[in-house]
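Possible regression after last week's pipeline update?

I re-ran a chain I had predicted before the update to compare outputs. Posting the input and the new output here so someone can diff against the archived version. Not blocking, just want to make sure nothing changed silently.
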Amino acid sequence: MPQLTPVIPIFWETKDVFQLKDLEKIAPKEKGITAMSVKEVLQSLVDDGMVDCERIGTSNYYWAFPSKALHARKRKLEVLESQLSEGSQKHASLQKSIEKAKIGRCETEERTRLAKELSSLRDQREQLKAEVEKYKDCDPQVVEEIRQANKVAKEAANRWTGMYHNNTDK
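New output (post-update):
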């Protein structure tokens, strides 16, 4: 990445359009970049959108103007400012909703008592669920479902063993 930035000033200073062969001559002289790496550096800049490239006929032309970088930074700044304002508005609305929620939640003796009652009822419900789960094996409906499943499994086993015996008898 350190060699990416020296190429851009060539474009900005001259405000001209170049072909690759021109840049391979200019970059080593003016910026000290090896001629072999110019193509690679240029392609990286094109991929990052810092340099524009257009194929005209059989030649590729490269250019980058200072105003493009300025406009890109302005657009990025506008996007970030709009995100900041949206975030600030969301923060303010959440703060308001927190304040509204706090109004109805003053710590009173009745509220504390109701919160304790709610907690104990939730615990009681969990205990009852555990007890129902414990006695689930004795539920007539569950027992009947198990019997039906056993019956189907037994019929399937008889079917397969019958097929086995029929095939071995031949």
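Follow-up from reviewer: compared with the archived run. Helices lie at 4-14, 20-31, 35-47, 66-103, 109-134, 140-169. Marking as no regression found.
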